[in-house]
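Re-run requested by the PI after the first attempt was lost when the workstation crashed. Everything re-entered from the original request form. Ligand of interest: zinc ion.
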Amino acid sequence: MSLDSNLKGIHPTLDFRIRGLLAEPSLRRYGTYPAVRSRAKQEALYARYKAGRGNLAANPHRTLRTGPAFPYGWTPKGSWHMVQGDGYGHAVDLRRPPGVTRAMADRAVKPYLAKWGLKQTVRSEWWHLQALTSQGWVDGPMPSDNERPTDMQIINDTEKKRMFASWTLGGTTVVREYSSYRGPDIGEALPGISIIIDEQIAKKQIVKA
Ligand SMILES: [Zn+2]
């Protein structure tokens, strides 16, 4: 399968970072497996793992606890390979070239992970990479300088105790709600603004990230 088809359905930031990693000269022979799994596929993998016949696979029904830096209102569920609350998959498994052992692959990949904002989130799996974890986004490059939001602002509804990050992307206003309220002193205080934001999202005048 081609890289394009393997990466289909993953978050654009993860897509950008994985392609950057695989473009490193020493990693050109590496590839990936199909990244996004249906719930049925995850259930099959989990059943194999429970029967002692496959790699570690997450229970598709589990709910993950998130840290305060997790930027979304939705809760990650099952495996990060499954489509999550934002409509994207958030994990990619690398494939090593013929003749390369797991230990060699781990040594080859590790030096580039920080540069590309990727993290091995399963201790025993050199191949499993994420850009978003339950602790938030890993620091790293954004898809492109043109797409990088430059006008990011924090909107603080001090009345409803809800906070949003807001920016524009290609002429569209995007908002992302914080999963927890950080207090009245952060960002621009706009009491009651969340009602307007909810309305504009419902009318698709602005986009929820
Ligand atoms: Zn994986």
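Saved to the shared folder this time. The mean pLDDT is 90.
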